[in-house]
Each structure stands twice: as C-alpha cells, then as structure tokens.
Amino acid sequence: MSPAQSASSMLWSKVPEITLFFWIIKILATTVGETAADFLNVSLNLGLTGTSVVMTVLLLAVLTAQIRSPRYIPWLYWLAVVLISVVGTLITDNLVDHFGVSLEAATAGFSVALIATFAFWFAKERTLSIHSVFTRSRELFYWAAILFTFALGTAAGDLAAESLQLGYWVSAVLFAGVIAAVTLAYVFLKLNAILAFWLAYILTRPLGASLGDYLSQPVANQGLGLGTVGTSALFLAVILGLVTYLTLTRRDAAPVSD
C-alpha cells in the first residue's frame, strides 16, 4: 500500500489533537460562553428562558451535524464547543436564578453528574481517552462530559468569585494556578495523561468564566468595563482566526489511538 493510500485509510478521531491551539481556543470559547450568555440574556432582553431555548435548539442542530460528520471538521467542532459553553452556563444560571439552587449545591451536583458520566463511559468503552473518540457511543459520552464540565465550571467559578467573594481577577489567578499545578504533575510526576487532561479541561471553564466576567463587568463590580459585546466580539474574532488556520493546515487532526 502506498503512503497516500495508507493515509487515506487511516482512522481519524472525531475530536482535535491536544495542542497549544486546543487550549487557547478552549479558554476563549469558555470566556465567550460566559459573556455571550449575559449579552443575549440582558443586552438583547431575551431573558434567561428565551435565551436558553434559542441556544439549546442551535446546539442540538450543530451537535447533530457534528455527530453525523464522518471526520473532524474544525469549524463544526469548535462551533459546537462555543454553543455548549453558552448552554452549560445557562443551565447553571437557570438552576440558581429560577429554581433557587445554591452555587454550592450546583457545584456538587454537576460534579456527581460528571463523575457518573465518566463511570458509564468507562464501563461501556473501557477507556476515557479522547484519542479514541471515533464511534457514535464514545462521541455521545464525550459531549455529555463536555456539557457537564461547562455547567460545573460555571457554578464553581461563580462560587469562588461571588459567594466566596474572591473577586473575578483573584479567581482567575487561582484557577490558573491549579491548572499549572496539574500540568507540572503531568510533566514531572507522571500524572496519568487522561486524568490530567480532564482535570485541566474542567478547570479551564471557571478560569474562562472568571476572565470573561473580569473583562466585561463594570469597574464598580471589580471588572474592566469592556462590556459583553466587546469581549464576545474580540474573542470570537480570535477563535475564527485560529479555527481558519487549523482548517487550512489540518495541524490538529488526530489519528485514532488507544
């Protein structure tokens, strides 16, 4: 078999390779999830319920296209991540604002839901590696886990910044420090790669939420006052540029491995 034939027959993962680009876009998408939810809810006067309905419908449409796609398509994958970031934020906001669930209870509840998702995923597939996401079952587990990480991250970020009154900037530094500790544990202490990935993935959500709030909130609320429109537009522009680059270069396309 020629190299070209071998490459064409290789099985490719439905999710991107974990590179620096992945983490940059992930944090930017996380921040957009926080600011875009606030923009749609407050600035456009859609209200929490209206925003939740609109974004959930959009997410389901994009996720359907993503799951039906036979391969990883950068713009489709990252559009799904941005939308699931917004919906994850809205789920937490609905529980807290409409149903009176405390941030402590929401954080604990989503932690249990995420652990349960991982348990069912591993019980069925015997792996939690994102390098082996190429079947319908594994992809469904993957997106369920992603949704719970965003909802959990929103609750944990708000808990740190608001309930514990650490402020947005201090919360961002705190979560960034924990991510750095996980990275060092992976590099120097040989922390399991799958565990390190999911810990970092979970922690980037409250990091991005805290950064989004810090940039967009008024100075009176300990923010920089850039507003939800400016912050969302800036970060979406950067995401679009990076995703366009990855689409053209295919630098983050990952072959399947166990």
TrEMBL record:
The keyword Metal-binding does not apply. InterPro entries: DUF347. Keywords: Membrane, Transmembrane, Transmembrane helix. Coiled coil: none annotated. The chain crosses the membrane at residues 20-37, 43-63, 75-92, 98-120, 140-160, 166-188, 195-212, 224-248. It holds the Pfam family DUF347. This is Membrane-anchored protein.
